[in-house]
Protein 1
Amino acid sequence: MRYAMAIDTKKCVGCSDCVVACQTENNVPTGYCRDWVIETVTGTYPDLAIELRSERCNHCAEAPCVSSCPTGASQYGPGGIVFVEHDECIGCGACIESCPYDARYIHPDGYIDKCTFCMHRVEKGQDPACVAVCPTNCMYFGDMDDPNSEISKLVSTRKYKTLAPEAGTDPKIFYLI
Amino acid sequence: MNEEIIISGRMIPHVDPHLELWHWPISLYLFLGGLSAGILFFAALFTILGKEKEFAGAIKRATIVVPFALGIGLIALMYDLTHIMYVWQLYATIRLESPMSWGAWVLMLVTPLSALWVLGYFKEYFPYWSWKTGFVKPLGIVIDWINEYRMTIAWILIPSTLLLGMYTGILLSAFNARPLWNTSVLGILFLTSGLSSGAAVIIWVSQNHVERKLFSQIDLSLIIIELFLIAHMIISLYAGPEVQNQAAQVIMGGQFTFQFFGVVVILGLIVPGILEVLELKGFHFPVAIPVLLVLIGGLVFRFVMIDAGQLTRYLY
């Protein structure tokens, strides 16, 4: 099993519902967020192009945060979900320094926190909160190892990109372009 | 035009607009760790070479600094942890792919050895105490035991201090997410800088002309090597991918140019290097001047690398 997310940049309208859903679902402290929306504008007027991307932890297969963690608190969970075991975290910040996506932060309680693909929901067979709430249905969550899953089909038929693949992290969020 | 903005709003403390996670405690620790590694390396080396009498400054005097420096460094390190109650987790495992993990273990080895090393010379530091009687008698026995095994300790210290000095650099260079740090020369550069700081302290506390002259020569060689390694670092950043080219800008014309070239390279390496050459040629300066310049240069170098490195990133 290999969990992944595909996000259709053609369908995203940048409403930030995913951000609010995540903050509510995961009780993210005020002023913090586990996901965010980026708007990229390229070109020269009048030939401008806009791309909208909902970004979060890429749940990398070669996660530098897992290898840099001195205690093993940062680890791979079921389906390759990268998460932090709070009781093993010393708050050294090595994982934050090692993340090319800047997807982690220090929780006000001291441990390092991040997107968990809503592990607690996924365990029950539900989609992560951000995916479940998306009003344009531009986000897809599923098992990349299952060739019949919607996400496998999308990634095999649509053009996609990943963020900073040159960092060698093998990211598992696919942006359909 | 190529503009990327976060439209959902994101201003996470210590992460946005750029990383400001590691502060002065880490820089201070990296400096003190390197300095301690440098002093202990020379002390162990000259003990193994059987030069205890000629090089008392290195072996007996400068080493007093080390347990205190490592102690302060460790306190700084602890101060920087945000989930401090779980710090014991660091010593519940060894993870070789995490430099911080094996570095913590090396530190766990070197710190007590440095304290034993200094304790072993207590009888010479306090010759008028009556070591055979009273409450210091058990301490005397421990000291004799330490001195019996001093050669073994020295042999353990050679590789472990080299590892400690190198680890302070590898800790940073292992983060490929921070392009300024992600150059393999950093490990050997930090080690050289640490050895140079160590040699400088030895020059300062030495009371013997021969020792002072030898360590001036050692320090001068290390300064020259360090200058070459800094050139290597810059070349490797420019020869690397685009993110590293951009990272190099931070010290090559960007925000940290003055600190890096003005303080670290010129004031911390070139000026003391010239002073040491003049000293060896027979001109006399207060020895504290080149020594302090080397130490300040080493300290500022850690500050610049920590602060500048966190400005560099892959995205946005």
Protein 2
Amino acid sequence: MHKVVITGIGVTVKNHQDPHTLFATLESGQSLIADDHILKGMGIEGVASSRISDEEVIQLQSRYPSLDQTRVAPSGFAGFDALTKSVKDADLNPDQLRQAGLYFGTNKILPTVDLVHQLAQQKAASEKLPYQSPESVDYYNPQTVVADMVEHFEIGGPVTSCADACAAGASSLISGFRQVSRGALDIALCGAADFGTQPVMQLLFKNIGALNQAQLFNCASEVSRPFDSNRAGVVLADGAAFVVLESEASAKQRGASIYAYVCGAHRCTESYKMTSTEPSGKFYAECMQAALEKSCVSAEDIDHISAHGTSTKSNDSAESRAIEQVFGSHTPVTSTKSALGHSLAGSGAIEVVLSALSIKNQVMLPTLNFESLGDDDAKVSVVKSATPKAINYLLSNSFGFGGVNTSIVLARDSAC
Amino acid sequence: MLKPVYLFQGETLLAHSTSLESLLTHKGRLMSTPFESADLINHSIFISTLADENLKDVGAERMVRKTSERQARWLIASGVRTWRTYFNEPQNKSGLFIGLGTVDCDEEDNPELVQEPTAECLATAMLEERRPLVCLALLNSSATSHIAQLAGITGENMSFSPLLSAGLNALCEGYFAIAEGRLKHALCGGGSQKITPWSLLAYESIWANQDNYWLSEAASFFIASDEPRLNQHAAIGVMRQAYRARLQNNAHALTEQVNRITGSPLIENQHVVKVILVGANLEQQDITLHALGDELKSRAVVLDSYVGNTMAAATAIACNSALSYLHDAEQGFVIVIAFGDHAEFGMFLIEANND
């Protein structure tokens, strides 16, 4: 098997289009979460989110004039932006791109409020089903941007677009990792993009009782608090990230700088329930254990864990139990969703980028707002503030609705 | 070192309860009807539609029925039935790889719920009148989750969407999961997007430039395994090679790829029973058939001409067709050549193994 390294990273989230700046923001303990003004305008108070603003979307659109705004949704622009930056960061040339594969994770693009209004008006006027209305339904096809990515970068290898809910970003990375590890590819461009703050998406989350309750806290930045006893639901976010995975041999041959090694990964299904994990955390634990085995490292080797940590009661409780089962109580755990919110498909890719920078910078990022574990949580060591630490191995978790679990092990050097 | 991967035939759902076997045997053609909504894009499109599945025969609980919609139910029914044909209890190291369409909102996002076209009215409708579980029905991974629960599959899974490439990628991922020893058994397959005016518009750019386009709703599954045989079924193929790439400079690259497999030492001096093409547009068909040469061309089957464009179900239907063709063959290969969106391309060599 070939050793796999990360040679390029790109990220696009609220107010940040550079992974290093984002890392610095999170290291300083700042949150990107604020009151959701769109929902407020709909008469729904007390919801926090981390939204890429309309102004930022316009900036993205002007940066990539070749992408058709009527065909590509904002999440597509964010994904394209993250990919562009990762390719530039890795300094890949056209020949290398022609041999590369593309692995993209995304979810649904839901109708905008404007479109729903438009449909309602048409429905009222004509009594016909409102299919004529969208000027371009391509806009609602989340994979539309994949064609643009392929054409723009002249990507010549396999192209996949996976739809594994909140684990889609990590899942796309695992697929690319395996291709490079097997020697089928030298380079895999792996990433994801999702706009979790689409109003219809937030309303759907609210409808099933999973959305945050910001009214319980003093300000929006306190709402996302993974593993904390007072946590009260997920904060949805917009975001995209890409990593360039490359065989170590290829990277070294061309003198590319290496952020981290990807040692191994595991992806599995729970077969338990669609909306919640088994409370003991046994499926999460199995996933992490299998990732360790595939990486040929032991639990004791892991210096830091980037948790899925959604700030929901059920996930964080099960994840803490799983971590305790596999690692005991001392391995430091963080969830950057405390500052970034949860960008659904995008989150796994974003967290791998931040994990690679944690290894590169030898710094653990904080879990904002964490004060104490809940009664139902297992004893885990949650990182409260940014902390320098020798990180040789790091494990990153992403778990999705439907019981799609993923764990990825990253390392500092080639010993893995 | 890749392990051999054994394939076991599974269920294919086609319109009008038509069996795949009968289509292949009698060289028939699925019935299709004009799609009235196609005039939205000023084209003539024919469709073959599937009946709904109630999921009662696979023992799905009410919650599964409430959180699935039509195209997910085709997948759940055919996937679970395929799995249970071979396994009666949960298997270690089993996985699930599915290509599926994006679940659209046209059946549920009914704007008549919105009394007035205001944001507040929308919010009220969404929060008070909409069924809470609609959001789960819209998730692609819901179908995967339901199949996994009903079949007891706890290993690796992946779902891809939305069109031709989705089925191709699902099959490739399933193949490599077995060949690399990560799994012992994998349920592989795919389901088409349900055909609605909305989906027609959504994918207009793909098929609007083709006249008399024929879309078929379908779902199809098979099992990939590292075990040479399981109980009584004789239709066993060994997948000897899977290859996935993207074609550039279409004609030249495609010819090169076809030559690569037809010139493979694996099939030298072996009998090629059939060559199945699936998902190819007319230009790709012409190039491929030409590159195959006269002898192989005479054994080529353009699957879409029997069943229409079955989108993410297409590659699984092609593999099940290959297993049908190999059913009585003592030796020989079927070559499956599958095309995807974004000029993707996959080839699979399936060998008879009826010892």
Protein 3
Amino acid sequence: MSDSAAIAIEFVNVHYRTNGNRELISGLNLAIHRGETLMLLGRSGSGKTTTLKLINRLLSATEGEVRVDGRATTEWDAIRLRRHIGYAIQEAGLFPHYSVEENVALIPRLEGWEPARIRSRVQEVLHLVGLPFDQFAPRYPDQLSGGQRQRVGLARALAADPQILLMDEPFGALDPITRAELQQEFLELKQTLSKTVVFVTHDVAEALMLGDRIALMDSGRLIGIFAPPEFLRSTNPAVQPYVNAFRAGHQILEARRLT
Amino acid sequence: MPLFAFFAVDKRQMLTLTLEHLGLVGISMLIVVATGVPLGILLSRRPGWKGVVLKSTNVIQTVPSLALFGLLLPVPWLGARADRLAIFALSLYALLPVVRNTYVGITGVDPPVREAAIGMGLTPWQLLWHVELPLASHVILAGIRTATVITVGVATIAAAIGAGGLGEFIFRGLAMVDNRVILAGAVPAAVMALSADLLLGLLQRTLVRGQH
């Protein structure tokens, strides 16, 4: 079934060890389908961010092969590979000395787009993430709220229209209300854009809500891949703590409503 | 009483020595910026070299300036001309703050900002040019500012090896035991140091404002 055109990213027996020879990823095999949103779920140190960084070659596999669009990342020119992939991280990592417009426009500018095309693209992506251009384009990152910064980070990742989007706990540092808003908008965005998204989170609810599939990781290993309903039904002992935590939250809510 | 009468020196000579002094400081600082900033950038890329480079520039600064001028005198090509030697010694002396501040400024860039830049596909040069240098610029400029003020002062000692500058008046005044002649060197040097400090300070504030 592994039709290569349907697979955007593939991990083939990937190991990653640090210089200190600590194994952060062990024998990872994973195929990410074109157009799906795959959630990488796990606790801190489980290897999910490492997995993400292996995709855009911020890290290189010690053993095995990571393929993007059928080609090993080591065969790609690293810069071309990264520009082919959008990257949004927690705290957004916006350039504080650039306005919102300049932040979003940077990669198109470095790619040598025409100024008019850059401007219309910036307008388009800011609109996509719900920021009116006239109001936000001239602002600087320190004049934005956390949620707005995260939106700009997403707009910047989308600017050059990459087919693949990597998101590393993009909503992790937001207050619960803003996070819920952004999650909702992400779901809508996902429908309109149909990109391949790899999304790192440690939040079970977020994984269940946003993912087409959930890849559960623990100590550098892939425990399994589940569609959200499967995840909730799974009897896998590694899945249980997550499901329990998720259910416990609901039970507490339920109990409080009854009293 | 006219100003120049008070200083008990020739007006034209005062102008000449002030210009000489400016020349020594200006050329030295050009060399310091042209070598110190790239050196600081290099250290940020090769942190392993940091210890050696920062320590050796530090050691240079601990050598008393008068001794540094004297010690360099027998060096073949350098010692042949007093101004050449003076500029070399001044540049060595002023290197530390510029190298250190460039290194600190660049490594001080917020890690998520750098990581996002690399992850987006900026080349190392683009990272330096579009992100690291602009964000480090006010710290680098603070180093250049410190270095300039030091250099204006240390350059007065260049007169001891015959390289000219406002130190001429100071040494002459010392020999003549005439405070007015000493002041004829010291006051313009102080004014020069304060002006450089003020101007670079203004530039620094403009940069900080420019980048929010």
